[in-house]
């Protein structure tokens, strides 16, 4: 599978605005943690059968079961319903809680992986991270 592998981040856009808008109106303690001050620039994706793990080298290293809703630690630290789907070289992960749906799309084109973050919450802009495959 082409999507599997290790990547190094080369560009990140829109994260401060994304997390600020996503946090608006959430109670204290349920706000997204936002991007780390010194983020890990590496990403690893592994696929084993219907299990997909996205490892950023941080404490949050989720494993998703393809096409099945599972509970995963959410942005505020509590479990959220999450479903992942794989179509060719694109992994789509959607997490839903009482605040709406948080979507991540990992799309590989050649050696470039673009991760697009979006939310169903009104007024939340998209954010992107671009990685090069190692």
TrEMBL record:
Region entry Disordered, spans: 23-51
Polar residues: bias regions: 39-51
This protein's name: Fatty acid-binding protein, liver-like isoform X1
Species of origin: Sitophilus oryzae (Rice weevil)
Gene designation per UniProt: LOC115885354
């Amino acid at each position: 599978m082409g999507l599997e592998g290790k990547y190094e981040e080369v560009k990140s856009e829109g994260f401060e605005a994304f997390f600020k808008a996503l946090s608006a109106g959430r109670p204290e303690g349920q706000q997204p943690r936002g991007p780390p001050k010194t983020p890990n620039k590496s990403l690893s994706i592994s696929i084993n059968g219907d299990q997909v793990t996205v490892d950023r080298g941080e404490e949050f290293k989720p494993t998703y079961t393809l096409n099945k809703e599972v509970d995963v630690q959410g942005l505020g630290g509590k479990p959220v319903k999450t479903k992942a789907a794989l179509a060719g070289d694109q992994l789509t992960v959607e997490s839903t809680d009482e605040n709406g749906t948080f979507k991540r799309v990992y799309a590989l084109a050649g050696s470039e992986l673009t991760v697009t973050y979006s939310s169903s919450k009104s007024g939340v802009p998209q954010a992107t991270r671009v990685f090069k495959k190692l």
